[in-house]
Design brief:
Number of domains: 2
Helix content: 40-55%
Order of helices and strands: HHHHHHEEHHHHHEEHEH
Pfam family, one: HTH_31
GO molecular function: DNA binding
Number of helices: 13
Strand content: 5-15%
InterPro entries: Cro/C1-type_HTH, Lambda_DNA-bd_dom_sf, MLTR_LBD
Distance between the termini: 42 Å
Radius of gyration: 22 Å
Protein name: Transcriptional regulator
CATH topology of the largest domain: Beta-Lactamase
Organism: Streptomyces termitum
Structural class: alpha+beta
Number of strands: 5
Oligomer: single chain
Length: 267
């Protein structure tokens, strides 16, 4: 995925990030140990920031690693962060660690996705949950959003589809608001265009007040309804674009019946 650089320069890009974070020039200046006057000059193009200043502002604005490279390029500097292929030798330790984590989480489902929700790894518990789905959804490069929301995917099995779909769509929209991924925008347009299946008599309404600590995914599997809550983890202070965009999603049983059923499957 290529880094896109705006032709309007680093100043307007930094201003957009500051406005997205809802910071004033003074607040950003205090955090970055600068002055509001200098921040103003950088944003208007009257002053060219040093490479160190670009990185410092990007850090305090919590700019994603990919977009930090774009800021550096727009300021006339070389990108700082590499974008390694996931199968590159230098990421072997990472791959092994992810594999151990996924296996260790069994019998509960877990997967790893990239910034466009392409599935890069999954454990056997998730594969069991996806059994019976058509090959065109599961064949690499499989996409987690497409698997979940496609009419031939998990969507017909999800008892609270409208609530869960709304959660996933909002999640994508938040990411789109803070990034410029064209692949993510295309995926959002695709999945929001999927027709919703007719509402079933047993479908749980979107406004249902669930007796859980988080919105559950309520999904049918082999004649029973399983309940999960989802947790997403990312890597702290990544220095590689690929690693920065990986997310590990673990699905925790939301009730004792689901936990017990999954344990019986792994016996």
């Amino acid at each position: 995925m290529a880094t896109v650089v705006s032709d309007t320069g680093v100043g307007p890009l930094l201003r957009r990030w500051r406005e997205r974070r809802r910071l004033s020039q003074l607040e950003l200046a205090l955090r970055a140990e600068s002055s509001s006057r200098h921040i103003s000059f950088v944003e208007t193009g009257r002053s060219r920031p040093s490479e160190e200043m670009v990185l410092r502002l990007a850090e305090h604005l919590e700019v994603p690693v990919r977009d930090r490279n774009a800021l550096l390029l727009a300021a006339g500097y070389a990108p700082r962060y590499p974008e390694s292929a996931l199968d590159a030798p230098e990421l072997e330790t990472l791959r092994e660690g992810i594999g151990r984590l996924l296996r260790g989480y069994e019998p509960y489902p877990a997967l790893v996705v990239d910034g466009s929700y392409t599935v890069v790894a999954a454990n056997r518990a998730l594969e069991r949950l996806l059994a019976g789905l058509p090959e065109h959804l599961l064949a690499p490069p499989a996409n987690a959003m497409r698997i979940t929301l496609h009419p031939e995917g998990l969507a017909p099995r999800i008892r609270n589809l409208r609530a869960w779909r709304g959660h996933l769509v909002e999640q994508m929209e938040r990411q789109i608001a803070f990034g410029r991924s064209e692949s993510l925008r295309a995926l959002h347009a695709e999945v929001t265009g999927y027709p919703l299946p007719p509402e079933r008599p047993d479908e749980e309404p979107a406004e249902e007040p669930y007796a859980y600590f988080a919105l559950p995914l309520r999904i049918e599997h082999d004649g029973r309804v399983l309940s999960f809550v989802s947790s997403i983890s990312t890597f702290n202070t990544p220095l590689d674009v690929t690693v920065a965009e990986l997310a590990i999603e673990t699905m925790l049983p939301a009730d004792p019946a689901t936990a017990e059923y999954l344990r019986t499957l792994s016996d």
